[in-house]
Amino acid sequence: MTAAFAGFSLTGQVALVTGAARGLGLEIAKALAKSGATTFANGRDAGRLTTALSSAQARDLPIEPLVFDVSDTAQASGAIADIEERHGRLDILVNNVGARDRRALEDFDLSDVRRMLEVDLVAPFHLSREAARVMDEKGGGRIINITSIAGPIAQAGDAAYTAAKGGLEALTRALAAELGPRGITVNGIAPGFFATETNAEAVADPTVSQWLKKRTALGRWGQAPEIAGAAVFLASPAASYVTGHIIAVDGGYLAHF
User: Fold this and answer.
1) DSSP category for residue 184
2) Greater model confidence, 223 or 153
């Protein structure tokens, strides 16, 4: 029997995934743990996070909750410090938390725009800076930003989110350039249309599914576990020479018209 390719193993690594109480973040956290990484799954609601992780922990996966609000810089810095104190390292950061507010331009209060930018852009900036400091001590690491297909393309009534995710794409490239000499790769994953709890109403609408059947190359909604492979790849030694890129996991949405 041919030996398995070891390039995707994360054994001995320590990871933090934000927004991991449900949906894509939860699937990414479980996948990193299955690949061997000691994984901290973040959320703001301790009860929801504990419930979400219970099945994974029952299978003895190395995953545990870490409760904090990513938009609170003191809490975020404290969480990184806690990981460093407990394990002496942080090898992988996945900035997954995202806030979305679909409204027409004139309906937005600027305080709501600023709140979205705090969560979707400022928080990843701050967490990446904090994580890079810890990664420096071990000679490198991986930062993965979960962007969106709303970064390179746009639709009406979604200006604030599109701007935030476009900014996160640009931040990904900028951090790749700045942190590359320190052995830290920075990449992004741009999800397309996934059948998650957040999209439950759209998933239940047959007209949306019919539209996706025509609009995507694969003709369907993505399932949450399908995000995991890209995250494990970018976190792993297999992607050691990949940085500054955005991988679209979108069923061919951006490639199809």
Assistant:
1) E
2) 223
